[in-house]
Amino acid sequence: MNYTVFSAHTKGESHKKEGMDCEDYSEHYSDPEGRFAIGVICDGHSDAKCFRSAVGAKLGCDSLIQVMRAWMESFLGEKYSDPMAEIQAKKEEILQRIRMAFVQTWNYKVLEHIRNHPITKEELSKLDTPANRTAMRLYSEGKYLQHIYGATMLAVVGCDDFHIAMQIGDGVIIKVEKGGFYSIPVEDDDKDAAAEGPESMCDSDLLSRKKAFRISVNPGCPQALFVTSDGIGDMAYTWMLWESICTFQTGLMQKQNNNELQQGLMELNEAQNTFLMNFVDYYAVHGTNADDCCFSGFYDPHIPVSQVRLSEEELQNLYKSMEEGYQLREEKYRKSQALLQENLQKVQLQIDSLKSEINNLKKRGAELESKLNAAKDESNYYQEMLENNKQNSENDKKQLQYNQAYLKAHYETGTTIPI
Fold it and tell me: Can you give the pTM of this predicted structure?
């Protein structure tokens, strides 16, 4: 098996702005004897309660490589005449053993990390919010500590006789077959990720819930197998992702060295690594959420990359999806129009009511202004009367003084004061 294997991860622009660590991680492994290849990614949850997701993601990649390397070496070492038939004969038993080995290995590494790096007061203090105090109390009591390291995991393993796809949580596994046919080799999880969050390596139902830890095994090895986090995989339509992956693989092929191919080099050269990082960096900035990005996988460098071809079923599904999308947008438009019309009528009624109220206030204002003017006139009248009364009072006072003087003079002299 002469495939080129790679992996890359980088911090998203949103995490840079928020001062967060890169919580995605990726690894790959190529068997020195060229028998098999492994690509794996883990995506941390970006959740305050999972404050060691970055460590959990790295431990997840380490665990997957450790488990699958050991299993592949052991299984291929048996040199079965028909390896795929051997797997099919004991498929459920084999897959469950792989699940158990991975879960146990990751949990062991997590608990070992906690023993060597106990939770600090500073880490717990960041959970002192109404939404996270329950988690803070449980962690302080030493309970559910694996949740601190929560992350998703996607991996692909391939050899000449079969290939394996493994997934816990969200993200996309991409299978590329000759002729440009793309597909997703694992079934969807039936968990409501939008309401409950994606499945995680820290969840307790990985070995009990049917679709919690999804694994598929298929014969042969396709032209390429890739795993990507939702930082790259979240696109409006699946075919857009196919086109993006096709462009990426074409770019890698254009930068490969024929001499290196003849030597059986299974790693990317310097130019290809630069191209890989540019690809991942682009989505870390321009992706749907500018999230952390991780990407890994392997491909056959000897097979030319074909343009993306959709099967008749995929074309029908795409047409149906677009038609349903159009109908949903039309329905949304009609509801929006009806709501806007309803709101417009409500606002118009409010305007009419306010206008009527304004007119009533104007009438009331005119009435009050008329009463005010009448009150002013009455006030002026009484003011004038007061002035007249004051003048009359002063005249009466003068007349009194005169009369008193007259009487006094008449009394004292018996004379008459001329009037």
Answer: 0.76
